[in-house]
Amino acid sequence: MASHSFSIPFDPKAISCVLSTPPLTSTNPPVSSKLIFTHGAGGTLVSPAIANFSSGFSRQLPVLCFQGNSNLGSRTKMFSAVISNQEAPTSLGGRSMGARAAVMAATDHTQHLVLISYPLHTGNQVRDQILYDISPSMKVIFVSGDRDSMCNMPKLDEVRSKMKCQTWKVVVEGADHGMDVKPKKLTEAVGIMTGEVVAGWIKGNDDSRREGRIFGDEDGEVKWTGWERAEKETAVSTKAKQESTMPEKTRSNYTITPNGKATVKSTTNSESTPKRPRSDTNVDNVEKKFASKRTRKTMDAVDKRYTKQDSVSGRTRAAKRAQPT
Which residues in the chain show pLDDT less than 70? Predict the structure, then answer.
């Protein structure tokens, strides 16, 4: 990797830049396209997250990183100044606040947006509107750690599903918002790997495979899964494929679960053994049953009435006998 520093005029202060390019080899010829990239709110050009990413990215493509301040509006204007100074760059990116500035600075010439540790939410505020406003002609890649407190993965997937443009997602296992992982010795390798993955994505991407993971294995090596289909897309495609290969008669007796397994459909008693309509005989028997119940109730009431009358008559007769003559 070769790099050199220079400045770009900007009011009130010139913008410090570092251009990193791949080593020139027979298999790695010079290219004119480059990524314009910037750091987060509290970062610098020598911050580990920036240095590691640039190191990995510049193994394949040039990357120009510039120094900015912590004001979002000013950083966006700096982006515009750097873009104007270069030969129509087609790729913009940044990490954290720098990623937001990249989205806001995108032009009609922008083809790729690289959003590292995009701060999707802070407190109750969700910073999603500028993502929905991205042109459908652009392609966006998100790279975030699964321990990033400012980018909940389910929420990110929800936002991605509503965006008008095509999006890709790289999850860095065990990484926080600053792309730090444990053990700490793997942090540099993880940052370099993210740069290599993003550079490869800009060089060529597959619309049908949009998710992947970077992780450290048991031997302390950082690995990349490669691009995979999203879990939901895989389940849907597996279900469709299995159903299409089943005979029509068999297909109606099975259902495909989300994990792609075929299971026998459960049937209720009403489906397997329909109820037999009641015959007239059954109706007669039911009516007789209720009729006998009514009869028993009536007889019981009559018995009680006569018993009461008998008891009254008995008391009257006894009273008469007790009267003196």
Answer: 25-33, 231-325
